[in-house]
Amino acid sequence: MHTVVVGTSGVTGADVLAVARHGARVELSEEAVAALAAARAIVDALAAKPDPVYGVSTGFGALATRHIGPELRGRLQRNIVRSHAAGMGPRVEREVVRALMFLRLKTVCSGHTGVRPEVAQTMADVLNAGITPVVHEYGSLGCSGDLAPLSHCALTLMGEGDAEGPDGTVRPAGELLSEHGIRPVALREKEGLALLNGTDGMLGMLVMALADLDTLYKSADVTAALTLEALLGTDRVLAPELHAIRPHPGQADSAANMLAVLKGSGLTGHHQDDAPRVQDAYSVRCAPQVAGAGRDTLAHARLVAERELAAAVDNPVVLPDGDGADLGTGGGRVESNGNFHGAPVAYVLDFLAIAVADLASIAERRTDRLLDKNRSHGLPPFLADDAGVDSGLMIAQYTQAALVSELKRLAMPASVDSIPSSAMQEDHVSMGWSAARKLRTAVDNLTRVIAVELYAATRAIPLREGLTPAPASRAVVDAVLAAGVEGPGPDRFLAPDLAAAEAFVREGRVVTAAETVTGPLR
């Protein structure tokens, strides 16, 4: 099994996917263990002094004015975990929780949190045992980080609350830890707070969305090409020189992908045979411009994710002497900061939801064009076998339209909202967790929208009798049929076909099928 080693300089998106989705083992590097010990020594030195230090010897948030004596500090750290584990609603998906835990471990290992090495090791042990804390949908305002979700994870480290075992059964966390030989942690100064205070949930969901959207954007290029072909459109609008004079990189990549899929087609270029058509409709002709803009949005979001993956997000943070201020005490200091604010991540999560909605919108317009006999240039109404007796794909487009309508609602930014909390101490929040949750729904819906276009296009192309599709198109059509999606014919129970098409898209098989002919798509 693949192993991910966590050091002091952050992790990669590939590391997150390996742990969250594929169960990769986690190990701490020697460098990380040394950094953990060094930072802990600073916290212990500060804890021994009479001066109050936030997170070490004070309360939290609006209660930070109270000085906490040594005899109450363990209780203080336990209490913040218990009280902040206040989530409600449905359970969050296992992969999201694993990403959340792994990314908090990443920050802990940076050496800026003051957590003891044994706590970090316990976090790794829980991940490696396949134990997944029960985390709920609601509870994070995205500032100070994803507090409630992270608190439920920390509760599991303490052997409290509920968690899901590797067999998928939810049981008391203490029982699961015991079965796997994991000793619950007894939190000390600063540790409870350090386990809760980060953007890890929203970041994990961003990383996974980026991976999914990379495949979906390639899939959309393929389905757009298939639709262009089925409509007897022209591929001349995809010529590289046309896109070079508007040098958006994503646009050039999308056009190149479509051109690669259409290479050798006997259907393109017939757009003036049945009736004069100087140019194709926007939904066909402008496919690279819309998908390309989304690709460039992905590139920006990826840059933000990479920066956040290299960050140490906590408040307060442990800094060694000589790191920038004049508050040195002993070997270092603990400083309050605002790095836990989720705005950078929240903004790109919302930006992606907008791009996703628009990609789905143009795909739906192409599907509708395939089904409308007045605009499909010779295809039967709704691609029906015997129109009037058969309804064909009429209602498949209704389903697609309903999904697009919901995507438009999901495109409303979450990050423009803010509700003050903690007695006005935390008076501006990011709502990044909410932005991430709605983006996950949006990605699922986009998958379904592309699946409907795929189904319609692969049904339409065989109806162009006497014309030969491009080899890549033929490969996609054949792969779809082999996956259990039936081709043209009389009406039948449509939901199973749509479900099979959805699985085909979700598993990346649209891209895989096309690439057997085209080679790697961009």
TrEMBL record:
GO cellular component annotations, sorted alphabetically?
A: cytoplasm
According to its UniProt entry, the protein's GO biological process terms are: cinnamic acid biosynthetic process; L-histidine catabolic process; protein homotetramerization
Pathway, per record: Amino-acid degradation; L-histidine degradation into L-glutamate; N-formimidoyl-L-glutamate from L-histidine: step 1/3
How does it get modified post-translation? Contains an active site 4-methylidene-imidazol-5-one (MIO), which is formed autocatalytically by cyclization and dehydration of residues Cys-Ser-Gly.
Catalytic activity as recorded in UniProt: L-histidine = trans-urocanate + NH4(+)
Q: Which domain of life is it from?
A: Bacteria
Question: 5-imidazolinone (Ala-Gly) cross-link position in this chain?
Answer: C143-G145
Gene Ontology molecular function: any one: histidine ammonia-lyase activity
Q: Where in the cell is it found?
A: Cytoplasm
Mind telling me which Gene3D superfamilies this protein's record contains? Fumarase/aspartase (Central domain), Fumarase/aspartase (N-terminal domain)
**Family assignment from sequence similarity:** Belongs to the PAL/histidase family.
Q: Could you tell me what this protein is called?
A: Histidine ammonia-lyase
Organism listed in the record: Streptomyces tagetis
